[in-house]
Design a protein that fits this description.
This protein has about 200 residues and is of the alpha/beta class. Helices cover about 40% and strands about 25% of the residues. Strands 2-1-3-4-5 form a 5-stranded mixed sheet, with helices on one face.
Length: about 200
């Protein structure tokens, strides 16, 4: 009987230790806090790059020239930002950071992208069939964009022993949709040293 009791206690203790060791430790932090765990592209990089590149873009002559000529803010649509890096990067969060940064300057407005326009057009078609005619939104009233923002993210990785250098080059171009002119080209570079090095990452 004593033998079985000891075995039972041992099993209970083992289960308790296993459950404790497999429970993850979770620490809540501020969403604005810069945290870099792996050295890969992260939310901090996305926001900082978007803010800096937008600040540069609205300080260039194209904006003042457009406002003087058209007497209104430029309307911008976000095109494709290509991920040409060697790691997975969610470019949608980056393009959204760009939109937010540009809108917050108060110097530009945004037009819905292709996927959003298709969904809105489907809603207008649905309204035409089922909504009160007095409230139906008409076709042919969309506002065309003046410029398209496009870009790409490239990386170069260099490694020796336990140290890795990660180099990111982000390039953005603002293109006049009517003339295909590139009115602004921006570039931002980031270097990160991951691991033991004489340099601080």
């Amino acid at each position: 009987m004593k033998k079985y009791f000891l075995m039972f206690c041992f099993c209970c203790l083992s289960l308790t230790l296993f459950s404790c060791s497999s429970t993850p430790k979770i620490t809540r932090v501020s969403a604005d806090e810069a945290i870099d765990l792996s050295g890969n592209w992260n939310d901090t990089d996305s926001k900082l790059v978007a803010d800096e590149m937008v600040k540069d873009s609205v300080s260039r002559p194209w904006l003042e020239n457009f406002i003087k000529s058209k007497q209104n803010k430029p309307r911008i649509i976000v095109g494709t930002v290509l991920n040409k890096s060697d790691e997975h990067i969610n470019t949608e969060t980056f393009t959204k950071d760009l939109e937010i940064a540009l809108l917050n300057t108060g110097k530009a407005t945004f037009v819905a992208d292709k996927n959003q326009r298709d969904e809105v057009r489907s809603e207008r078609m649905d309204q035409a069939d089922f909504s009160d005619p007095a409230t139906v939104k008409k076709f042919g009233k969309e506002i065309g964009a003046d410029f398209m923002l496009k870009g790409q993210i490239n990386t170069i990785t260099d490694a020796v022993k336990n140290t890795t250098l990660k180099y990111y080059q982000i390039e953005l171009e603002l293109i006049d949709i009517e003339t295909n002119e590139k009115v602004w080209i921006g570039q931002k570079k980031i270097k990160k040293v991951v691991g033991k090095s004489k340099y601080k990452a």
